[in-house]
Design brief:
By secondary structure, the chain is of the alpha/beta class. The chain has seven helices and nine strands, in the order E-E-H-E-H-E-E-H-E-E-H-H-E-H-E-H. It is globular and about 50 Å long. The N terminus is likely disordered.
């Protein structure tokens, strides 16, 4: 699942050693992913990082772990930037929720987000009644995330109800993400000076 593989200097005059913490999550979302993110947020906060960048590339994963990760992002004392990258990466299924929950949601060109309809653990369809319950629960969850972050709730809901996916440019146009960045340096430049609300 990666680790603290890089730090980047930010032009923040008020901090003695301004920097951004950086991790990569590039596998299915499961309990180890949730634990990794939680520890990364704690470590970045304790280290005085100005923000934590999570480079994400995932086909999806467990809904319970996804909820844990969203809760940790929302409760973070520092901004969490989810960056779907590199080009060719995706934030599918569970990745859609995680990206939408970020204080800043970014994607690299030639990436995609969506197809967040619930499925069984092996990828097969759920039984009808269970599928309906799981879908409605997931739709309500992603609406609440979207409303909390000021994102397009209708478009994000379509990723659950209709398994819709968006390219990076489509996601930006639909107000699902905040920006497109070609690489980390471009991302850092576009983050510089941006203000985001933390908690309340």
């Amino acid at each position: 699942f990666g680790g603290f593989v890089a730090t980047h200097t930010l032009p923040v005059e008020a901090a003695s050693h301004p920097h951004a913490a950086f991790i990569t999550i590039d596998d299915t979302i499961q309990p180890i992913s949730a634990d990794f993110l939680s520890r990364a947020i704690d470590s970045a906060t304790d280290d005085g990082a100005q923000l934590l960048i999570v480079r994400l590339d995932t086909p999806g994963g467990l809904f319970s772990s996804t909820r844990d990760m969203v809760e940790d992002i929302v409760a973070s004392d520092i901004p969490i930037v989810v960056y779907v990258a590199p080009s060719g990466a995706r934030a599918a299924s569970a990745g859609t929720f995680i990206t939408a929950a970020a204080h800043v949601a970014a994607m690299a060109p030639t990436t995609n987000i969506g197809a967040a309809s619930p499925v069984a653990g092996g990828g097969e369809d759920l039984p009808e009644t269970l599928a309906s319950k799981a879908t409605q629960d997931a739709a309500a969850f992603i609406r609440s995330i979207a409303q909390g972050r000021g994102r397009n709730a209708k478009a994000l809901e379509e990723t659950v109800l209709s398994a819709r996916s968006f390219s990076a440019s489509e996601a930006l146009e639909a107000d699902i993400i905040d920006l497109i960045a070609k690489d980390i340096d471009d991302l850092m430049a576009k983050l510089d000076g941006r203000a985001v609300p933390i908690k309340d």
